[in-house]
Structures are given as C-alpha cells and as structure tokens.
Specification:
The complex is a heterodimer of chains A (160) and B (293).
Chain A: H1 2-5, E1 25-30, H2 34-43, E2 52-57, H3 65-73, E3 78-83, H4 94-112, E4 118-122, H5 128-145
Parallel strand pairs in A: 1-2, 1-3, 3-4
Helix pairs in contact in A: 2-5
Chain B: E1 3-9, H1 15-21, H2 25-32, E2 34-39, E3 53-59, E4 62-64, H3 65-77, E5 78-84, H4 86-90, H5 102-111, E6 129-134, E7 144-146, H6 153-164, H7 176-179, H8 224-227, H9 245-253, H10 266-273, H11 282-292
Parallel strand pairs in B: 1-2, 1-3, 3-5, 5-7
Antiparallel strand pairs in B: 4-6
Classes of the chains: A alpha/beta (160), B alpha/beta (293).
Chain lengths: 160, 293
C-alpha cells in the first residue's frame, strides 16, 4: 500500500533523452527479497528506469515458464525474474528451482528468436543497489535489442 | 431419424479412421442410426461434399491449401465438426516440422535433401504447401475434439453414442496419472533413463526417471501405455488445467538433480515434451510471431 502511495516518480528517471522506443519490461519480484529491494530503492529515492513494471509473486519459484511466455505474447520487450539469494529463500528451494527453470526457458527462447530478453537475478531485500543496477543494465540491453518482434502481430497470435 | 455423418482426412495417416473401425461390434449399433454420406477412404474425393451433414469427423492437420479449402467446405455443410485425433486437435507429429522454422524448413526439404531431384519447391499441379502446420481449429470453428494418436475406440464409441442420443459428449478433465494404477513414489527422479533400461514393474515410471508425460496429459485412455510399462508420450494433448503441455513438463521436471534437460535443444524438447502439441504450443506461437517480421 505504502508503495502505491509513494509511486509518483520523474518520468525519465535516468535523465536520458526520450528515446523513440520505450521498452516495456515485466519484472516478477518475490515478496520476501527482490520486492523488498525494489521497495527500498523507491524509499531511498534511487533512480531506475520507469519502464520496469513489477509483478509481486509469493516466491520466484511461483513463476511458471508459461507466465514468461504469456508476457512476451502480450508484447513485453523483456522479462526479469528476481528472487532471494541462494540459501535465503523463504520457501527453502524456490529460488533454486526458479533459476533452473529460467535457464532452460532462456535456452529455448534463444532458439525461437527471443534471445537475451529474459534474465534471472538473485538479491536480498537490502540490496537496493543491485536492483537498480540490474534494472538499468537490463533496460540498456533491451534498448539495444529493439522492440519485441511480436508486438506488431499481437492480434494475429492466438491466445488459445 | 438417421444422422448424416461424414469423415474427412487431411495431413494424417488415416490411423484415426482405422480406430473408428476398431470400435468393433459396437459400430454396428451406431451404424443403425447413421448414414455415412461422405468418407474419403470410400468415395472419390473429387465428388462435392454433400449438403446437410450432421456430424463431420475431420482427421489430420492442415498442411496444404487444399486441406484448408476442404476444411472450409466441410464446415459450410456440417452442423457439428469434430477434430478427430491428435493431428487435427493439436497439430500432431506433423507439427514438429515447425521446429525447423516454417518456410526455411519447407525449402530445406525440397531443395537440400538428396531424394528431391528437381531441387525446387513444387508450385504447379500440386496444392501449395503452407509454411506452418496448423491444427483444424486454426482454420475453422471446431465444436468438439477427440484427442489421441490414435483415439481410443471405446471413447469414440461413447462420444458418437452420446451425440446420436442428443447429449453433449464430454472428455475427462483429469490427467493420465489419475487413471494410472502404478504406485506413486514421492521422490523426484535422480536421473533420466531411456526406455531400453527396463523399468521396475508397478512403480511410477516418471519417478524411475523415464520421461512419462502422464502428469500433463488428458485422461480418458485408461492409462493404457504406463499400465504396460511404456511411458506416456502425451498423445491426448494437455489436460484441462494445463495450458501448454511441453512447458508444463519443462516446469515440472526443472528441479531434477541431474540436470540433463538443460542440454535439450528445441528439437529435442519439442519432440519429447510436446510431440503431439508443438504446432499449437505457446513456444511455436511465439516463433510464428517472431518470424513474420
């Protein structure tokens, strides 16, 4: 709730000139660590790209590869999955399972032509620095990759 | 009142038609109330499709312009269209051609392989091949799906009987594991095993490391394969709660200790986890979108 109230942020957080292409990045954050890190980054007034849209999940292990595919299908340019540090998962092994899943999924995404658009990072609730760094570098990476090729065809792709 | 039934075959092996005959004695009961007005193994398919068809069973996936045209023509005449078998329902084994990338794959087969003497994609006198394998519901509206490769004769019989008596047929919403008699073990598989390493009888095949697609596959076949020690290959498509069979299995097996699935490239992943459903899977949907660019 407090997050929602303290939401207003400068539109161009990094002070970069407005690019023609503004990526949409979906970030799955686990409730116990990386969401805390993002929250801390917000309350400590650290700047990171506003293009990162956060979806809070109970644990990074909750993120099904299907959620990621669905995000791409709906036109996301990049997807971040972030969880707790190794051995610090609230649910013991959720982050380890999530990492294995995302590695495997990333490999298949490379094969179908969406390589480099999915990253997995681990951070604790205190690592606001790492959150900002991850979000900023991923933003740059997606800017370099360009828009999601599916975006223009969104309507033609059947959502089953 | 007789019910007018038509059957049609697209890109498939006519195995589903054989399964229809395989119903056996019950077929005689069904045929009492049925007039078979069009069937491609029986009639000259150049004949026009007769009008006022009550139920149309369409087998096979849509691979050529001709298939597409025939499916649309049949849809116009038929009141109730059934996608008959795995190819028609989910794209089938034919759909694995999509792994090699639509147009590129077609060109490769016709111009690079040694058996093709002319080295060009045929365009005259034959129907144009589509770049991607499609399931029936990508082309026309489908009223009901009978999954399976081939479909289970008992299930076909029960569905046809239900339709003839005016009821709405249903498919099982459970997964193969719910019907499987093998003993479930709690531990995850330690490593992957191939089928020639004979499984222990009466124990869950997946827990023993054989890639059994049971958890993600729709029930209704009475778990015929796992019951006999053969891992399920997933021919009945995703179960009710699973959106995408291949990705669901990848998700489920991702936490294995010995991590062989990491080495799976797309062809192997599709061939193992989405053998019958790749053409309608999320991964292939994304690939189609990306390659249109």
């Amino acid at each position: 709730m407090s997050k929602a109230k303290s939401k207003p942020k400068p539109k161009q957080a990094l002070g970069t000139p407005k690019a023609a292409f503004e990526p949409r990045i979906v970030s799955f954050c686990c409730h116990y660590c990386s969401y805390g890190a993002a929250d801390l980054a917000g309350t400590s007034k650290m700047a990171y790209p506003t293009n990162v849209e956060i979806i809070r999940v109970p644990c990074s292990g909750r993120v099904d590869p299907l959620h990621v595919l669905r995000a791409f299908e709906e036109g996301a340019d990049g997807v971040m999955v972030t969880g707790c540090l190794k051995d610090q998962c609230h649910f013991v092994t959720g982050n380890i399972h999530a990492e294995k899943r995302m590695q495997k999924l990333a490999k298949q995404l490379d094969a179908i032509g969406l390589g480099g658009r999915l990253i997995f990072e681990l951070m604790s609730a205190g690592m606001a620095n790492k959150w900002v760094e991850t979000a900023s570098t991923f933003y740059e990476q997606i800017l370099a990759l360009g828009p999601n090729p599916l975006k223009h065809h969104k309507k033609e792709v059947k959502s089953d | 009142m007789t019910v007018r039934i038509a059957t049609m075959g697209m890109a498939g092996c006519s195995g589903c038609h054989i399964a229809l005959l395989d119903i056996g004695v019950k077929l005689l009961d069904i045929l009492k109330d049925v007039e078979l007005v069009y069937s491609y193994p029986l009639v000259d398919t150049k004949n026009p499709i007769p009008p006022n068809i009550d139920v149309a069973l369409i087998e096979g996936s849509i691979r050529t312009e001709h298939d597409k045209e025939m499916a649309e023509a049949m849809r116009k005449q038929a009141k109730f269209v059934i996608a008959f078998g795995a190819c028609s329902a989910h794209g089938g084994v034919n759909g694995l051609a999509n792994v090699f990338g639509g147009k590129q794959g077609v060109e490769y087969v016709y111009t690079k392989t040694i058996l093709m003497a002319q080295k060009l994609v045929p365009s005259e006198h034959v129907p144009q091949i589509l770049t991607n394998d499609l399931r029936l519901s990508d082309v026309v509206k489908v009223d009901f799906v009978i999954p399976g490769c081939p479909p289970n004769p008992d299930e076909i019989a029960s569905i046809l009987t239900a339709l003839l008596s005016g009821e709405t047929p249903t498919l099982s919403s459970k997964s193969i594991c719910d019907e499987c008699p093998l003993e479930r073990l709690t531990e995850a598989p330690a490593k992957l095993r191939r089928i020639h390493e004979i499984p222990e009888p009466d124990k869950c095949l997946l827990s023993q490391g054989f890639l059994c697609m049971g958890p993600a596959t729709r029930a209704g076949c009475n778990a015929e394969c796992p019951r006999r020690g053969m891992p399920c290959t997933g021919c009945r498509g995703p179960s009710e709660t699973v959106w995408d069979q291949g990705v669901a299995m990848l998700d489920a097996l991702a936490a294995m200790e010995e991590d062989e699935i990491s080495d799976f490239k797309l062809p192997r992943l599709a061939g193992t986890f989405a053998r019958y459903t790749y053409a309608s899977s999320k991964l292939d949907n994304l690939r189609k979108g990306v390659q249109k660019e």
